[in-house]
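Q: I have four molecules that I believe assemble together. Could you output structure tokens for the complex as a whole instead of separate predictions?
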Amino acid sequence: MTEQRRTLGALLRLPHDALQREIYGSLAARGFPEIRPAHSAVFRHIGLHGSRLTTLAERAGMTKQSMAYLVDGLAAAGHVTSTPDPDDGRARIVRLTPKGERVLAELLALSAEAEARVAARIGDRRAARLRRYLEQWVAALEAG
Amino acid sequence: MTEQRRTLGALLRLPHDALQREIYGSLAARGFPEIRPAHSAVFRHIGLHGSRLTTLAERAGMTKQSMAYLVDGLAAAGHVTSTPDPDDGRARIVRLTPKGERVLAELLALSAEAEARVAARIGDRRAARLRRYLEQWVAALEAG
DNA sequence: TATTGCTCGACAGAGAGACTGACGATCTGT
DNA sequence: ACAGATCGTCAGTCTCTCTGTCGAGCAATA
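A: Yes, here they are, computed for all four components at once.
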């Protein structure tokens, strides 16, 4: 059983990858096989009434070009629309379609279900603490 | 301050990415800019006396071709060698060079340093619990 | 021993997802 | 009115992963 010590990086990556497989596997089974993990950058950051491409890119921490690539894919599959901004001739507003909103809802639900399964495996208390510590870590990161 | 609830996936991904940036940034600063995160799949799984390509691929959960791509890069930069297996004419044994061993040592050291910084930010006790809960999660994953 | 089937690693090709650089169109502040 | 900043796009590149195919070598058996 000589448990070799894993790096913290690996301890984050392994559960993350498992979570991702679960969630996007279920999403595919529920009728959205075209949604890939990278698309979550759009769903996570898009506003209720739409957002600019540049805003999305900024929030997701990626280039406009990369975000455009993701948005194009989602637009082709009918999950978002991209319409001209009436207030700015250069800009376009990306909005979720009803189909896209269903996907977002599914993603949030699947995420919650996955978290509940984790709680079932390691215990409610521990799962709650795990979340809290991660939140604190993230807060520290964001503080600088 | 309307803290919106993040998914557990995001709470794993954000610290993971930050950790990765820290570690590979420092590694570059210490003279190994050619080592990229994907290469850790090799360093993490290679045995003390070398391993077969197929074994590495299996352990890393990727195809032989993908592992060969990573190994080729490391071999070109002098971090590993790939020599014929005397016991099996088909196989080749991938081994760390002294340079590769230095990289492995740096990676482990940088990982430990990063973990210590986390402990400094969220507290020793919490960091220890965080690691323990993640280990339990991973153990549960491996159990099936 | 000869054959049959499996395994090892390589070759070729593809695709996702990120990047940089350059650019025309448009907005904004002076 | 103009200079400079910003919006999104076009074109090209790179990393990292995948599939499919294949020749060479190993192992078990008829």
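A: One point stands out. Chain B has six helices and three strands.
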